């Protein structure tokens, strides 16, 4: 027995030594070791990593680093380490022992110069040699402001990479840029020092247990959810992050970023994609998850100014003035509250609103994702009779409860009248009922409710993933840039927007409540008297009551953009209804470009009486690119109008710019083909309505100054040359346009101000300004201009 025991012990010891040898030594360098994040979360997470991994064959050393001089830095770091806590199930003596070990392995060092980095690298190598270890790899955690990234990255790359056969991982904390361009620049810069697989960009919300469980939950309940997780069953999705704290003490950061960059662009967007993306077969494959996420990003409908409401808590500007030494009359426009309506334009989610909301100084701290299902049941018997649990008429929802709030811990809740979810029992356990506790309007007992067996902090989870090279919970460069592509236009359009001021806390009452319709989101309550004046010089519509109502001797409609678009949409609908009543059909020729986009959206979402079934849609002009190209006018029409309405396919008439595998070749006679199609279907080749725009050079349709094609003559459709790329175009000719029963010219934006002034004064000079040649022979011409175009 003794012999056998001795052999067994020797084998085990050998195995352990081999494992140690195989797995090697890991150095973790925490930069910003004395900063807030390190003190609050990172040291604790590193300690947890040590507790979880030290016994499994790796050896560790932890280097706290900062710019602070060694003595002072060591003191600050020691303070941070003193407050480390042990897991609840650990005895006091175990805790003291392990903490002691961890402290002995943790040292402070100043990392300032290239030389400091070289010394660090040498010290690691010397230690490894001295202790007869093999180096496995190094983890550098950047818990520093982004302006410091480039220098640190350069130093690591040039002087602190571990030798061959080892790995390097760098961990980066947001902000990763300020908009698409800056994010791209930062990504390119970092990409010149590190490989993509070496970088771990942290979004700590991906380490929150309820968030990390979204994909596994969808996977484990695939069978039931396959049927339910789509537009036929889901009423809406809410991704919510409410905070009670405000930005005091952080305004130098916050003033530059604001709530959308701080939490929506990253945390909430990541959650949105986890809910919305197609579920990969392998939910653990980081590559598959990334590809599906990117697909979800591509399906997001572009945000407009009207997709969001923004607010700012009342004391924010004062805090900024104090902390950033701003003058007394300084008023910040940075939003501290935002709600955004997002649409995912694909077959699964078309029409389902996704609401993203986040704010500081709100009434409670809580975060959750709530998928609310449609309810088509009608219950005859009142609730008083029978059990309510399975009542099909009660709300049906799946909630990933991130934490805090009434419940006070992470959870996954599924209405009992929906289905009983499957969850991994070793890590999730059923929540005990708490009578009297209501969540989302229903008693807790109405949910199947689960909580993590062991609550873990997000940073501990993420550090463990970094250690195990599990990349699916990190933000890749592609993922990051896709998110900025989505958010940047909204951020730009909100740049000068005055946020609604709210008092903060419970006093907010219903002030920030919002509602959505027709793709737009707005506050439910009228704007109360503003506590801060808007930009002083902004003109009000009432200032313009005496405007003239004609332009170039034709009727002029002018208004603020939203109102203008509504009026135009109404007028087009009225014209369509009338045409269909009289002739049985309505022929509408539409322009491309950006101005009509809002009109298309308005028509798509707000005009249910529109006789689409009897409408023929034609193009005024087209770029010589394939119809699937994002530059194609038809693509714009498709994205913003066609896919939301029901027009018979045979009533849609794209311009044939792409024939015989080539674009706009004269020999292919595309222009003539289109002209024949018009003559065949449109009585007298006279469109019921032609929608035109006006370029800053006075062009209209694709008829350009100093280019005679299409200005006169017999041809109905012509090929033309634009001064801008893509140069080749196809266009209706002026004579054809002028045969229309009604021509509408839509002009919007400050950029059009000059040409609007100029064209108001010139006569009939289509060669110089093709727009001046628009004069329907027997039809009507109406100008629609927004105040910015008209008044500058
Ligand atoms: C951070 C934001 O990313 O998340 C903070 O910069 C915010 O503004 C914080 O307060 C919220 O995180 P948590 O984990 O406390 O919900």
From TrEMBL:
Domain Glucose-6-phosphate dehydrogenase NAD-binding positions: 29-211
Catalytic activity entry: 2-deoxy-D-glucose 6-phosphate + NADP(+) = 2-deoxy-6-phospho-D-glucono-1,5-lactone + NADPH + H(+); D-glucose 6-phosphate + NADP(+) = 6-phospho-D-glucono-1,5-lactone + NADPH + H(+); D-glucose + NADP(+) = D-glucono-1,5-lactone + NADPH + H(+); D-glucose 6-phosphate + NAD(+) = 6-phospho-D-glucono-1,5-lactone + NADH + H(+)
GO BP terms, alphabetized: glucose metabolic process; pentose-phosphate shunt, oxidative branch
Keyword Transit peptide attributed: no
Keyword presence, NAD: no
E.C. designation(s): 1.1.1.363, 1.1.1.47, 3.1.1.31
Start and end residues of each Glucose-6-phosphate dehydrogenase C-terminal domain: 217-508
Pathway stated in the Swiss-Prot or TrEMBL entry: Carbohydrate degradation; pentose phosphate pathway; D-ribulose 5-phosphate from D-glucose 6-phosphate (oxidative stage): step 2/3
Residue span, Glucosamine/galactosamine-6-phosphate isomerase domain: 561-783
Signal peptide (from-to): 1-19
Single Gene Ontology MF annotation: glucose-6-phosphate dehydrogenase activity
Keywords: Carbohydrate metabolism, Glucose metabolism, Hydrolase, NADP, Oxidoreductase, Signal
Recorded GO CC terms: endoplasmic reticulum
Pfam families associated with the record: G6PD_C (PF02781), G6PD_N (PF00479), Glucosamine_iso (PF01182)
Domain of life where this protein originates: Eukaryota
Family: In the N-terminal section; belongs to the glucose-6-phosphate dehydrogenase family. In the C-terminal section; belongs to the glucosamine/galactosamine-6-phosphate isomerase family. 6-phosphogluconolactonase subfamily.
Protein name (database record): GDH/6PGL endoplasmic bifunctional protein
The encoding gene: H6PD
